[in-house]
Amino acid sequence: MANVNSLADDRTAVPAPSRTSRAAIVRAAAETLEAEGLHGLTMQSVAARVGVRPPSLYKHVDGRDALVRLVAEAAVGDLIALLAAAAPEDSEPRGALHAAAAALRTFGKDRPGAFRLIFSPGPPSTRPGPDVALLAVAPVLRIATELAGPDDALEAARTITAWASGFIAMEIAGAFGLGGDVDRAFDYGTARIADALSRR
Hints:
The chain is an all-alpha fold. Helices cover 71% and strands 0% of the residues.
C-alpha cells in the first residue's frame, strides 16, 4: 500500500498551474488603460481584472513600468499591422500616405489610451524598445522616401508623423471647437502634406 505521506509529498512537488499569463495580463492592462487612463493602470487594478492578487503579477512582469512598456509594445504591434494593411509596400505613395494617416486616425479614435501612450513622452523604462520603434516608423519612412526622396526622407517622415499625431491628439481631446467638417479638414491636411513633400 502506498504511503499517504509520500503521495502528499508528490502532489506538493508538482507546481500548481498559474492562474494567469503574461499575455492575459497585458490584455487586461490594455483594457484598464482604455477604461481608466494611464493613471488608473496600476498593478492592483490589473490584478483585479485578471482575478489574482497583485503579488501574482510579479511572476510575469517586473513591475508597473515593465507592464506599461509591454502594453505600449503590444499597441505599437497592432498599429504596425494596421499601417501595413492600409498602405502595402506596392501602393502609390500619395494614396499610401492618405490610407496610413486614416488608419492612424482610426486607431487613435478607437483606442485613445493606447494612442496617447505611444505618442506622448514618458520615462525610458515605459517606452517601447528601439527594435519595436524601428518597425513602427518603417511604413511612414517608406512613404516619405517615395514622396520626398531619400535625402529628405527622415525629415519628411517626422513632418508626417508630427502633423498626423498632433491632429488626432487634438481631435480625441475635443479641441476642435469651431465647428466645420473635421473629416474634410483631415483630408485637406493630408493632401497638403503630400503636395508639400512632393515638391523636391
